[in-house]
Amino acid sequence: MLLYASDWFEKHDTGQHPECIARIHNVNRMLETQGWYARAQRPSWVAATVDRCQLNHDLQYIEQLHAWCMKDAGRVESDTVVSTGTWEASMLGVGAACDAVARVARDEADTA
């Protein structure tokens, strides 16, 4: 199994939103206590590029998201919270997802 973890993910500060830093800590603690960390391969990977993100999103949307992040805009939709760390964390997260798919497709791992 591939496991993608980075301190950058904690920089996406959402305050009291359910998808918050405490959730990351809880998941990591569960993975550790259940032995998944010891069994998982933790690859290194790179953040996605804007070009890669354009395969699924319009450039205007990507640019708006980047602007909100740089402004530390907070809640930008009913269920979307951004902070200054969101841009890097999200681009790294997209890169992780793309890397995981590529590795599984190449039979380097069964799951991610």
Give a quick rundown of the structure.
The chain has 112 residues and is mainly alpha-helical. The chain has 5 helices and 2 strands, in the order ααααββα. It has a two-stranded antiparallel sheet with strand order 1-2.
Question: How would you portray this structure in words?
Answer:
47% of the residues lie in helices and 6% in strands. The protein has 112 residues and is mainly α. The longest helix has 20 residues, at 86-105. The radius of gyration is 15 Å and the shape is flat.
What labels describe this entry?
5 helices, 2 strands, 112 residues, mainly alpha
Secondary structure layout plus pairing:
Layout (H helix, E strand, L loop, with lengths): L20 H13 L2 H4 L10 H4 L5 H12 L3 E4 L2 E3 L3 H20 L7
Antiparallel strand pairs: 1-2
Could you tell me the radius of gyration in angstroms? 15 Å
Helix content: 40-55%
Q: Could you tell me the mean pLDDT?
A: 92
Helix and strand succession? HHHHEEH
Biggest sheet, spatial arrangement of strands = 1-2
